[in-house]
Structures are given as structure tokens and as C-alpha cells.
Design brief:
By secondary structure, the protein is of the alpha+beta class. Helix 14 packs across helix 28. The protein has four domains: 94 residues, Alpha-Beta Plaits, CATH 3.30.70; 159 residues, Multidrug efflux transporter AcrB TolC docking domain, DN and DC subdomains (2-Layer Sandwich), CATH 3.30.2090.10; 377 residues, Multidrug efflux transporter AcrB transmembrane domain (Multidrug efflux transporter AcrB transmembrane fold, Up-down Bundle); 209 residues, Alpha-Beta Plaits, CATH 3.30.70.1430. The chain has 31 helices and 31 strands. The strands form eight sheets. Strands 1, 2, 3, 4, 21, 22, 29, 30 and 31 form a nine-stranded antiparallel beta sheet that branches. A six-stranded antiparallel beta sheet has the order 14-13-18-19-17-20, covered by helices on one side. The protein is elongated and about 125 Å long.
Amino acid sequence: MASVISIVIFLLGAFAITLLPIARYPQITPPAVTISANFPGASAEDAAQAVAAPIEQQLASLQGMLYYASTSSSDGTTTITVTFDVSRNQDLAAVDVQNAVKLAEPQLPAAVRTNGVTIIKANTDILGAVALKSTDPRYDALYLANYMKLYVVDELKRVPGMGDATPFPLRDFSMLLRLDPSKMAQLGVTVGDVSAAVQEQNATNPAGRLGREPSPPGTQFTLPITTLGRLQTVDQFKDIIVRATPAGGLVRVRDIGDVVLGALSYDLEGRLNGGQAAMALMSTRPGANALAVKQGVVARMTELAKSFPKGVTWAIPFDTTPFVTASIKEVLLTLFEAMLLVTAVVFLFLQSWRATLIPMLAVPVSVTGTFLGLYVLGMSINVLTLFGLVLAIGIVVDDAIVVIENVERIMATEGLPARLAADKAIRQVASALVAIVLVLCAVFVPVAFIGGVKGELFKQFAVTIVISVVLSGIVALTLTPALCGLLLKEAVEVNTTGFFGWFNRLFDRGRGRYVRAVGGVLRRPVTFSAAFVAVVVLAGLFWLRTPTAFIPIEDKGYMALSVQLPDAASLQRTRAVVGRVEEVLHGEPAVRNMVELIGLDILSGRASANNTATIFVNVKPWDERGPHDALDSIAARVNAKLGAMREANAFSFNLPEVPGLGATAGVEINLQNRSGMDVREFAQRVQEFRQATAQLPASAGLNSAFRASVPQVYVTVNRESAKARGVSLSDLFGTMQAFLSDLYINDFNLFGKTYRVQAEAQQQFRQQPSDIGRLYVRGTGGAMIPLSALTTLSYRSAPTILSRFNGFTSAQFTGAPKAGRSTGELLDEVEGLVQTQFANAGIGVSYSGQSYQERVSSGDAALVFALGLILVFLVLAAQYESWSVPFAVLLGVPFGVLGALLGIWIRGEPNDVYFQVGMIAVVGLAAKNAILIVEFANELRGHGMPLREAALEAARERLRPILMTSFAFILGVLPLMLASGAGAASRHSIGTGVFAGMLFATSVGIFFIPLFFQIIRGAVDRRRAGHVAPSTGDA
């Protein structure tokens, strides 16, 4: 029966493996909703005040919202991203945001309402980018961008698991009416005239049907009536009649300008390795299998490529899945190495392949069965669940080792046959096994009470450990005794020769010294109690002083670069600087591909500006790079070369470890203007803050794209003169918007899609500030009045991109700590700086991305440990039916905690999520060692053995299983601590803590456990005897 149960668990688990999704992380990215609006011709300040502010006022009370951030640009675009708690359903969140925007719509400008406000569910889990390139000059950037959107993007969106595929650059076709203001003034035509003419003549005009019912008798046909509706060709738009002249002539669009089929916007440009390209930036749906989505993309693009025009090719130049594949592969290799090391340790102690086979059979049943539990609970195969399995390998053999070690001891000392010895052994250790399983499960229960991203990370690990531990307990109570009776020999022979003989003699000598040392500890309770207090104090001090972080920064095989030119630099200048950056990157042999997004700044919330660019860089795989080509080394060399550039500020940065959790893997700090000071005064404070942060001990440099000194032309309208001359102010401002920006009139159809018809001035009329005065508006009596007669020009400074965070004007700073320092230290220093130097001026600080998660969850680990210890205490109290004896077990935990903290201190690692996850396991495993001694000593004491002798005998008899199980676990996690390649930083973090913690708990803590039992059980016995024992000094 036991064998059947184990086989069923194994088979179901193996089948579940084929069904589980694979990803680096589970779905832990906080859901986000993006609001986009356009206010044509508006400045960044105008867009922030007129668009962002009214919408933000309605967002503050949304359920589950963490924070919202908006970016308004000088091209009139406003983007607001609302980020929600990870537990919030994204669909419901989008509905809430949509309702909030509806409430704000009456306050928005008419032009914004006309263009429409877009609300989409943000898919921030970046998968990569598909690119189209052409070797045929006929297929230029405009053609490629529209081909991508028409024939590729929708196909990519249909790939199972695809969240979104966003075309870049967005160069939708547009019918551009490029007007000549001089000719319009000569002919007495205004922008309003052109707009009205296009709306009238470029319209769908239904004309009805002939012969429709009711009709006269004998009607033979019903004929629909059609006429020219929406125009489609350039010539048709050129022939639009704008007005009739007094002499009877007609003024057409061709008489006052030109018409071209162009792009909706030319503010963005996409390039691949220096050549023009059209991109589709892909992101996966929440919970999707990234590897399967990537395979689907390749299959779909391979099929689509068969119909591409000759000379058009495709590629995936930026891809995040190799890191997922490589990191999971490395963890699986670690899993295999851990199994080999655990097997070696077990064989070393048991010295029989038969005996070794028994506990090792528990591993595949427990580990494979864990996948069944993950499938039932809707989880995935990710690095966290695999980390849990690596630790579980060293844990799941423990229960079986305890059983088999006891069986062999009984066979050797009492001469019982294997079957009877197995039956007796399981009766002796069953309660201890149950206690160990319950303790290891109980220590993870508080994880369920942690919310946010950190809680989700903890839960993945905790659920994996709990499932595997429960299965290992079931196997130890059922399959292991049966295998002992079946496989063990009737007589147990102790090796006295060869390597095993030498090991046994060494172990016996070591055990003798250990027992004598424990005896010395038991004779000096005060001295060693004081030493224990010192251990507790040291553990507390190390916990408080160890730098904190959120998630280790990995070599993911890709990075990003930000390029910032001086204020007001043109797109042409930006393109030239990007070319120089490309030359620097080409000089790095490890660089494979560069995806250049000119005009886009992802560090400013994906705002568009002519003087910015973002470059995504993929490097060669880890096994093709030497030690000098680690991503940090490449970035350092690139930054050193870029630092010499005078034309721009360019630097590399790591993308966030959790996709979608902010813009960078470092810190994200939002300096807020909470006093309402003028934006230019705030800019001075931002500059002071930038200079102050450069002096912080933990800062490697913080960067911000906030600028308020961008040169701008300020137009002052003489409103009295305008009204006196019969000029409508709306016409005046509309003329400037149309000629200096663009005017959306209506739509036309092409290739089965709908595109915009826009009016704008020809290039030569929008180059210099003086060109503004050459624009004309109609006044009283139809007179055409130049704007130079109604306006005066001046120069001023203002921001081209204006950010707001939680309703306040803000400047976002991103950066990283110095080598050897943590993000937690840097955030603490920044917070102290703001409090001491800037708070009185009305400046505050808030956090976003990974920094937000790090700050809000900073106290969760201590709470988890405290609750875990309380639950362990309650479980042990129920097990021993005593409120006192459990303390003898729990007092062994500080040794594991101190050891783990010493380990990361020596190695220079911070106290991050992975370390804290490992610490929870150390707490349970340290308690397990204590249980083995306390359980046996308590039993001996119950049979009447004197207290000190019971503690010594328990230490002697339980040393072998403690060392066997502990070193099986310690060596099982050794591959984590020594890892290299993809995902090595995370493995170092979790491996170092559990290795050092269990090593210290095993090598030091086991000397104190008998003392704790003697003190506590002695106090219990004296209380039961009805008297208080005199104080005991050192013997």
C-alpha cells in the first residue's frame, strides 16, 4: 500500500510538470492602468494643469491603488500610470479608472475630448522586440512602420499569452495638408475655412435607395444611391474647394499649400544596430508562459515572412527570455548537484547502498509530488519554486534518515530483524517526525499574512517547502519503514577497515569529545547561559546593522542606456549623438544587438522629447562571455567612454529585476513639490538636491531628467487690440495651434483602416520665432491681420517634460548604490537628507517601483519570524503537552540566525528578499536539530533517567542523525552559494544565508541544546515537586 501511494504521487507529479507554466517569476508585477490624452499645441505646464490635474483629482480614492504618476510633454501628450496592489484584479482596476476619468472629462479642454482619452491595461512584463528592416530603399521608415502595424502587430497580439504588441515608432499614415500662410492671407483664407471645407467635403454622405417599400405596384428593382463620400487620394484632397472669390473663382487646397500622404508624427524614430527599422515592443499577459509566447512569436513571424515584400526581413533583436531559460537551467543544474551531494553525505554516514537507497527514494517522490501541489494551487515553475526544491532536497531526506538511522541502531543494539526493528523504530520516532513536519510547516504559515510583491515572493517559496515537507513526512511514515524491512540486511556490520573504518573511528572520537564538551557545558550553566545571551545580542545587532535591499541585481544578458542632450536640442542632433553611442557599443565584442528608440525616455515614464533616446542592448550568452565581460564590467567600460562625450549625458542602467516593477533595477525616488512653489523655484531645489546626493556615502550617482530651463518662446496677446479689431481669441490661438503644431480635422480610410486628416504649416513657416508674426487671422470686415500686430514675443525658460507623483509636481531620480553598499542604505540616506535640508522648504520624497516595495515591506521579515516562532512554540507545546519544554527547542534558533547574518556579512551581501526567505528555512531547520535532542531526552527523562544523564545520552544518540541530516542540507545548498552564470546573484543570496546559518547552528548550537533542556526541564520537575531549587553556579 505504501509503495502504491508513493508511485501514484510520483506519476501525478510528473504529469503536472508538463502542464505547469514556466517563468522566471510568478505573477508578482503590480497591475497598472495607463491613461493617455493629447492636448495639441499645449506646453508641458499647460498639459499638466489642464489635463493631468483634473484626472488625478478623481484617482486618489481608487480601491487598492498604490500610487499614480503622470508625465506631460511639450508636444501636448499626457500619460498617467496608476499602479495597484498586486492582489487587485486588473480588469476591475481598469473599470475604476475609466469611471474616474469620466468624472473628470467635463473639466478637460475641448481639444482633449475631441482627440479622446485612452485607457488601457498596462502590460509591463516586457518580452522583447520584433523588428522589420529593409535592404530595398523603396521601403522607407514610413512604409515599414505602417507595414508593421497593418500586417504584423495584430498577428502578434493573437499569439497565446501575448499581452500587447506596441508598434514603434508610431507613424500611422496621415493626410497632411501643408498650408502656406502667406498665400492664405493673400486669398483671405483662414485655418477655420480650411477645416470647415474638409469637414464638409470629406464626409460619408448616405443618399438612400430607389424603390424601397412602400413602393407603387409593379416596382421591379430596389437600387441603393451612392455618391462620393470620404476622400482617399492626395489629388482628391488637393481639389477640395475652400471658398469662392468675389470674382467668381474658386480657391482650392492646392492653391494655398500642398497635400502629402505622410505620418501622423515624426517625433520618434526606431533603429536597429544603426539602421532604420520598425519595432513591435512585446509584453506578456499576466501569468503567461514567457517561453511558450516567445516560441509562438517565432512561429507566427516565420509564417508571416513568407508574404513579406522582397528585401524586408525580420528579427528579434531584444529578447528577455534567454535569461529566463538560462536561469531556470542553472537552478535545475543546481538541483541535480544538490541531489548528488546529499546522496554522498547519506552514503558516507550509512555506508551501505541499500541503506542509502531508502532515503534517496524519498527525494523523487517528494520533489516530483510537489509539482502536483503547485499545479493544483495554480502556481508555476519559476526560480522561487525551484529554489524551494533545492532546499527541500536537503530537508526531505531528513525524515527518512531519522527513521533508517533508528532502525539500524535497534538492529545493532537489540539484534532484531529488519522488519521488527522498522516497526519499533517508527513507533519511537513517529512523534518526532510529526513534530518536525509541523514545525517546518508552522514557520511558513505567517507568510500568508504578508501582502504585496514581497508576500507573493515569500508564498512561492513557502508553499513549495510546505508541500515537499508534508510529502516527505508521509513517505517517512509509510514508504521508508516498508523499504527498511525489505532492503536492510538482518545483521548490521560496522565497517572497521578502509575509508569507512577510518571515518567511523574519527566519528566515534569526535562524538566522545562532543559528549565530554556537552558535559562541561552542563556543569557551567551560568557561563554558557551568558554566552547564549551574547549570541542573541550579536544576532540582534547584526540584524539591525546589516544593509537591506529588495532583490539582488542580476546579469540578465541585457541592459539599457539613456541619452539626454541639452535642453531644446532637435531630433537631428539626438540622432547624431545616438550614432556616436552606437560606435561605442560596437567597440564591445560582447554586444550582439542594439535597439534604439530615439525621442523616447523610459526613465521619465516613457515620455517623448526630441532631446532624448533610449537604447536596449542584448549581449552574448553567459557561456560565450569571459569574466571580464560580465554585464557590470561592460556597463562600466561603456559609461567611462560615454562620460567623455560633451554633447550629451549618456549612461547605462539595469532594467528592473521584476519586469514592470519600475524603470530601473536601482532606486526610484520622487522629489515632490508639496508647497506649490513655482516650477522654476522647484527646479533650483532639484538642482540642490542633485548636488547633495552626490555627496552621500552610499550613492554612485542619481540622475534626473527634470529640467525647467528649456528655452521657450512666450507669446503675449494684446487682447484689447484683438477685440477692437474683431479678432476672435479662439481663432487666434487656433491659428497658432494649427500652423505651429497640427490641427486634427477628420478622418479618411486607407487599406481598410481609419487615419487622420491634419493641417499644419509648411516647414519654412515654423522654423524661427519671427515666423509667428507672419501668420494671419481674419478681423472686422474680412481683413487679414498679421499676428505681429496683435502679439509680442519674449523668451523664457520652462520644462519640456513635467512629472507629477501622487498629485504633486515631482522630479524622479534614478540611480544605484556604490559597490558594497545596498539600496536600503541609499534610501535611508536620501530620506535623512530630505528631512534635514529640504522638508522645511515644502519638499517631500516618495518612492516608486522596486524602491516602493522595499520601503513598504521593510518590517515584514521581522514580523514573519516572530509569528513563525510563536506558531512553532504552540505546535511544540501541544506536542509535549508542556508550556516550558518548547523553549528548549526555540532557544536553538538564534544560533542559526546569527550564523546566517555572519555569512552575508563576510560575503558583503545585503539583507534582501532571498536571504529572508532562506532565514525562514533556517529557523525551522535549527528547531529541527533541537527537536531530535529534546524529544529523545524528554523520553529518557520520562522513563526515570536522571536529568543530566538524559541530556547527555540524548546528545550522544542523536548526534549522528543530526550531523547526517544537517550536512546533507548544508552540502545540498553549497551549489547555490558557489553558483555562477545567469541568476547567480539570487542563488548567492539565498545559499549563503542558509549555508552559514545551518553550519553555525550545527557546529555551535548543538552544544547548547542539552543545556537548555536541563535548565527548563529541571525547572519543570522542581515545580512539579513543589519546591524551588537553589541557584546553581559553575561547577
